[in-house]
């Protein structure tokens, strides 16, 4: 039986990054569970009208304080970040995002729990050294593995949470998903939608579905994280006393080989597969030549987004699929504490593709 904290009648969630993939799915799930939800982002656009939008720049403390002046959150879920040109800048900016928010909330004394979403770069290294020889960890990845001896903005964000928790007395949890699969337009790291867009272009041009990544990823074992199961774990950690003050990996619960899943995705779009051929063939280079084709497709099929750069993030897809090792995560820490949710990975992709078609984001 899953241990659950008896919460106060009024649980007020502040979801930071509520328009992103992780944040929007979390906000929806919190609302389903009866929480009062405020969504903080640089844009006031939220698909769920029950989310109370807050528009503020996390790098502007005075603006942030003004936006939050009448809000007393009991739980903060931090799901956003900003990409910069160097890891030094990533650290400076992304630590400030967390620090500024928690400093603004500190005098209110309302926060009971802060959850931070990071990812597997905690184990695989930052963008500048991502999954490179010399820093490759042993897999499956486990939460107790030490930090790499590298600069990493995930570590800086964690340290801001730890320092604020010590100062203000709230509990915390850190959540490390593998590649996130879910619905969000304009997300910086959106492999599922990127593959859907690429597959749609292949179908339009009657081209094979070319594998862009490494042999290790093609043949090795992997897992991914549905944004909905991440939301489930975030809420579970917030409500379960024994789950507090720990870090957790989070993945769907099944494993697969990309050569199997690539064929399944190709079948969904009725494509022929061109698998690993001995070399890495980056998707970013291929999609860079397809902007005009996508614009024509947007007109022909009445799609709502004609900007290929806004709907896809090939650079991140190449990072994930080009890794020189197989990558999967161990979830023993949360499993032994009672988190037993599971999602089928093929269903994660197919449900996303169906939703993208329904909403006229792909043909």
Automatic annotation (TrEMBL):
Domain of life: Bacteria
InterPro entries per the UniProt record, alphabetical: NAD(P)-bd_dom_sf (IPR036291), PRISE-like_Rossmann-fold (IPR055222)
Signal peptide: none
Residue ranges constituting the PRISE-like Rossmann-fold domain according to the UniProt record: 73-363
Chain coiled-coil ranges: none
Gene3D superfamilies listed in its UniProt record: NAD(P)-binding Rossmann-like Domain
A Pfam family that the UniProt record links to this protein: PRISE
Protein name per the record: SDR family oxidoreductase
């Amino acid at each position: 039986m899953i241990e659950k904290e008896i919460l106060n009648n009024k649980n007020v969630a502040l979801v930071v990054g509520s328009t992103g993939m992780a944040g929007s799915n979390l906000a929806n799930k919190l609302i389903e569970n009866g929480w009062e939800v405020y969504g903080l982002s640089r844009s006031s656009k939220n698909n769920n009208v029950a989310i109370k939008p807050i528009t503020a720049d996390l790098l502007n403390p005075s603006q942030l304080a003004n936006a939050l002046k009448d809000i007393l959150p009991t739980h903060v879920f931090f799901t956003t970040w900003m990409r910069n040109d160097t890891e030094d800048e990533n650290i400076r900016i992304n630590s400030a995002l967390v620090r500024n928010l928690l400093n603004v909330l500190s005098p209110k004394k309302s926060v009971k729990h802060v959850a931070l979403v990071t990812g597997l770069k905690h184990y695989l290294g930052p963008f500048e050294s991502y999954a490179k020889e010399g820093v490759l960890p042993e897999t499956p990845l486990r939460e107790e593995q030490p930090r790499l001896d590298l600069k990493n903005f995930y570590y800086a964000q964690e340290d801001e949470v730890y320092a604020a928790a010590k100062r203000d007395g709230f509990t915390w949890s850190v959540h490390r998903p593998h590649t996130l699969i879910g619905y969000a337009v304009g997300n910086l790291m959106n492999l599922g939608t990127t593959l859907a867009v690429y597959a749609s272009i292949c179908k339009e041009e009657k081209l094979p579905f070319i594998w862009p990544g490494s042999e290790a990823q093609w043949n090795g074992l992997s897992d991914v994280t549905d944004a909905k199961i991440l939301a489930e774990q975030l809420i579970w950690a917030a409500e379960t006393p024994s789950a507090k003050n720990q870090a957790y990996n989070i993945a769907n619960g099944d494993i697969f080989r990309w050569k199997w899943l690539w064929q399944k995705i190709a079948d969904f779009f009725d494509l022929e597969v061109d698998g690993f051929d001995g070399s890495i063939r980056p998707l970013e280079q291929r999609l860079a030549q397809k902007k005009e084709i996508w614009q024509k497709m947007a007109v022909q099929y009445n799609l709502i987004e004609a900007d290929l750069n806004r709907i896809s993030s090939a650079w991140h897809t190449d990072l994930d699929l080009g890794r020189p090792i197989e990558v999967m995560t161990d979830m023993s820490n949360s499993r032994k504490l009672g988190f037993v949710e599971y999602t089928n990975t093929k269903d994660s992709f197919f449900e996303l593709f169906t939703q993208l078609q329904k909403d006229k984001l792909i043909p």
